[in-house]
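Session log. Operator J.P. requested a structure for one protein chain; no other inputs attached. Running the standard single-chain path with token output.
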Amino acid sequence: MTTELPPSIYLSSCPNCGGEISSFRLAKGSVCSKCLKSEREFTSVFDLVSALKANGNLNRLKTFDEIGRRFRRVAEFFRNSLGFPPLGPQRSWVLRVLKGESFAIVAPPGLGKTTFGLIMAAYFASEEGAKSVIVFPTKTIVQQGVERLQLIAERTKVSFNLVHYHAGLSESQKEEALEALKNGSFDIFLTTTRFVTTNVELLRKVKHRFLFVDDVDAALKASKSARAILEIAGFTEDDIKDVKELLKQAKTDETVYDKIAELRKKRLSDKIVVFSSATITRGSFTVSSLMGFKPGGAVVYLRNVIDAYLRMPGSEDEADQLLLKLAKRLGDGILVFVPVDKGQKKGKQLAELLQDNGIPSEFIASENTRKIGAFANGELKALVGSAFHYGLLVRGLDIPWRVKYAIFYGIPKFKFRIGETPPPFLVSRILSVLATVKQDVELARLAGRVRRRL
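Structure written below.
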């Protein structure tokens, strides 16, 4: 059964001239008959632009002509960097950046979020002479980003001034990086969330076109770092205070959103801000309002990942032997996550167990580039660490080509002392888990009320 469109004429709806256009032409992705006599169907706006340009009738869609040219250059830059053009969602991210949009990416690891941010920064530096600032959660990922940008420069045969700053640098290297930042003598600057938080005054003065914040949840989990991110994006302390006051009036005065939109347009007119995250968070309403988007949102992807489980043996020795058996069978590219209640001592024991039985392994509790580098180049076959939400193995690695397997040595847990006041977001999660386990409707409602107040 086919569904035919009713014959309709839409006023002021031709995307090229703003005149009348029929429903049939709109359904074909075309423009009105005055702009293009052909009844051809278009599946790409760039093909439509080319046809209009050929007959001399390109009008409102002229901006897509320039975006199309730039997109082809970016696609070629991707191909030279990686061996293939932007794939899947990367294509839409590139187009949005080229249109000057600020937006958030919420997607699981391995879909190319960080690669996209790095290549766009390299493209802006080498092709358009624009500066970029990239913020990572840890010094380890900063170092990995530097190495990947150097590889991109080598493969594309372009040059750009790459500057980075993190706690692992020597004092002379830090001074050199700070001096370059103050003088603006850089094309791409990579740093950590911690540096941004403690150097807001300096970064506010740095002129840049592209700001890419990787793992934005880590940056926004504290109000101080969230404020710092907003300020380097271009907002002032007064802007943040004003928006908070305006939001209090939102229930009785809807025009406050127009005022916030005007402020956003003014501050972000010459910048593109992209937030990237692998998880879903509620986010700050102030950040959402100022930036015009939510840092996190529910996005579902189909992924080629097998989830499996085995019942935990009764004794610890049996559990250790089961882990060893699994690791021997899987062989390489293994991350072992140890519940926080078992402590680092247990993690070190498990790493030694694997090492002693022919599986090169290390326990990793803090940022150690040597151990991560050894895993990345294949010297180590397994890394053991804590199953903590902001732990290094959870958020501190960006080497998806090496990670093949994740083994959880028991169920991940939250840990806090009796009498300690846990963070509100943790209370919400605990209540949600309890409500699910106990099938308790009242607990679920309470968890919902806590989430709404965050």
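Operator note: Residues 424-453 form one domain.
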